[in-house]
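TA notes, week 10

Several of you asked for a full example with nothing omitted. So below is the full record: C-alpha cells for the whole chain, then the designed sequence directly under it. When grading your own attempts, check the secondary structure regions first.
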C-alpha cells in the first residue's frame, strides 16, 4: 500500500509542476512578474519553485517537492501567511481564477489591484 501511495504522490508532484509552469505563463500574460523553475527534466520533474510579484512588495512563493508542498506570502520581506498541503494547493486555484478574471489583476490605468492575502 505505501509503495502505491508514494507513486501517487510523485504523480501529484509532477501534475503540480506542470500546473505551476502554466500558471506562471498565465500570470506573465496578465502582466504579473512570475517565474517557475523545476527540478529535473520535463517528464521527470521532482519539484518546482514558483514565485510571483503581486506588486506593492507582495510576493507569493509556492514550493513543491518530494518533501512537501508549501505556499508563503510575504510583504516587504515579512512573512504573512504560510500554508501547506491541500490548503497551499487551494491558494493556487484562487490565483488561477484571478487569471481568468483579468480585471482582478489590473485596473483601467494598468496598475496592479491589491490581491488579498490568503486566509489561514
Amino acid at each position: 500500500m505505501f509503495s502505491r501511495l508514494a507513486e501517487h504522490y510523485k504523480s501529484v508532484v509532477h501534475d503540480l509542476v506542470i500546473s505551476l509552469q502554466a500558471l506562471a505563463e498565465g500570470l506573465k500574460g496578465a502582466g504579473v512578474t512570475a517565474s517557475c523553475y523545476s527540478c529535473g527534466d520535463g517528464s521527470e520533474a521532482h519539484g518546482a519553485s514558483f514565485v510571483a510579484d503581486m506588486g506593492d512588495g507582495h510576493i507569493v512563493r509556492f514550493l513543491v517537492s518530494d518533501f512537501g508542498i508549501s505556499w508563503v506570502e510575504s510583504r516587504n520581506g515579512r512573512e504573512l501567511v504560510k500554508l501547506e498541503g491541500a490548503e497551499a494547493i487551494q491558494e493556487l486555484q484562487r490565483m488561477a481564477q484571478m487569471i481568468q478574471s483579468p480585471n482582478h489583476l489590473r485596473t483601467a490605468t494598468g496598475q496592479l489591484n491589491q490581491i488579498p492575502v490568503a486566509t489561514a
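The longest strand covers residues 47-55. Use that as a sanity check on your answer.
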